[in-house]
Amino acid sequence: MRAVHFGAGNIGRGFIGELLYESDYETIFVDVNEALIDQLNERRSYTVELAGSDEKIDVNNVSGLNSMSQTEAVVDAIVDADIITTAVGPHILPAISKVIAQGLQKRLEKGKAPINIIACENMIGGSEKLKGYILGHITDQQEAFEQNVGFPNAAVDRIVPDQNNDDSLTVKVEPYYEWIVETSDIKGEKPPVHGIKYVADLTPFIERKLFTVNTGHAGAAYLGRYHGHQTIKQAMDNPSIVEKVRAALHESGAVLIEKYNFSRSEHHEYIEKIIERFLNPDLSDEVTRVGRAPKRKLGSNDRLIRPTLEYIKWVGKDPENLSEIIAAALLYQDDNDEEASALHQSVQEKGALETLKDIAELEDDSRLIQAVETRLNEMK
Ligand SMILES: NC(=O)c1ccc[n+]([C@@H]2O[C@H](COP(=O)([O-])OP(=O)(O)OC[C@H]3O[C@@H](n4cnc5c(N)ncnc54)[C@H](O)[C@@H]3O)[C@@H](O)[C@H]2O)c1
Ligand SMILES: O=P(O)(O)OC[C@@H](O)[C@@H](O)[C@H](O)[C@H](O)CO
Question: Which residues form the Mannitol dehydrogenase C-terminal domain (predicted)?
Answer without folding.
Answer: 201-379
